[in-house]
DNA sequence: GCCAACGTTGGC
DNA sequence: GCCAACGTTGGC
C-alpha cells in the first residue's frame, strides 16, 4: 500500500522567485533554505507530495500548487553546513488566490502554521487544511 | 518604514 | 548552559 500523500506549504517572496517564474521554468530547485526546521520539513518530503505555493511580503497569498518531483538532496548552493533542497514542478495555479487575510478569517485554518509561525518558510499542512485552502481558492487538484 | 517574533551567535 | 545582542523575516 502506498503511504498517504503529505501536504506542505512553501513560501517565497515573489520578487525573488514568483509563481510565474516557477511556471515559466517548469520546475524549481528549492535551494537556499537555511533554517533547521524548514530543512527538516524538506527532508520529510516524498515525490508526489503536494505543496501550496505562497507569496510572502508582496502578495501575501497562496497562488498555486506544486508537486515534489525529487526528494531531498544536498543543497549545491550551501558553501558550508548540512543543508538540503528538493525539486518541485508546478501543478496548477489556484483559480482564485487565497490571501492571508482570508486564511486568518477561516476558523478551520486557525492552527495553520503559516498563521501561528509566520517566519517558517517550509511547513507541513494537514490534508484537511490543504483541502480547505483549495476550497477557498475554488480549485481542485 | 517600522516593529514584533524568532533564530543565531558569542561572552561569561 | 545561560542570556544579551544582533540579524533576518515578514506582517502591517
Q: What would you note in describing this structure?
A:
With 141 residues, the chain is an alpha+beta fold. The protein contains five helices and six strands. Strands 2-5-4-3-1-6 form a six-stranded mixed beta sheet. Strand 3 and strand 4 form a beta hairpin. It binds a DNA duplex (12 and 12 nucleotides) through residues 11, 13, 35-37, 56-57, 60, 100, 117-121.
Major sheet strand order:
2-5-4-3-1-6
Q: What's the total count of β strands?
A: 6
- Element-level helix/strand string: EHEHEEEHHEH
Supply Rg. 14 Å
Helix segment count? Answer: 5
Strand content: 25-35%
Note the topology.
Blueprint: E1 7-12, H1 19-25, E2 28-30, H2 36-44, E3 50-55, E4 61-74, E5 84-99, H3 100-105, H4 113-116, E6 122-125, H5 127-136
Parallel strand pairs: 1-3
Antiparallel strand pairs: 1-6, 2-5, 3-4, 4-5
The structure holds a DNA duplex (12 and 12 nucleotides).
Amino acid at each position: 500500500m502506498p503511504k498517504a500523500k503529505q501536504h506542505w506549504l512553501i513560501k517565497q517572496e515573489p520578487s525573488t522567485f514568483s509563481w510565474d517564474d516557477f511556471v515559466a521554468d517548469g520546475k524549481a530547485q528549492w535551494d537556499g533554505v537555511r533554517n533547521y526546521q524548514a530543512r527538516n520539513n524538506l527532508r520529510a518530503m516524498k515525490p508526489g507530495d503536494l505543496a501550496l505555493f505562497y507569496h510572502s511580503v508582496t502578495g501575501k497569498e497562496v497562488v498555486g500548487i506544486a508537486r515534489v518531483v525529487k526528494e531531498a538532496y544536498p543543497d549545491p548552493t550551501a558553501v558550508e553546513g548540512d543543508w538540503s533542497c528538493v525539486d518541485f514542478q508546478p501543478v496548477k495555479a489556484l483559480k482564485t488566490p487565497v490571501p492571508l487575510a482570508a486564511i486568518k478569517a477561516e476558523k478551520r485554518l486557525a492552527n495553520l502554521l503559516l498563521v501561528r509561525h509566520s517566519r517558517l518558510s517550509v511547513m507541513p499542512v494537514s490534508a484537511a487544511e490543504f483541502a480547505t485552502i483549495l476550497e477557498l481558492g475554488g480549485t481542485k487538484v
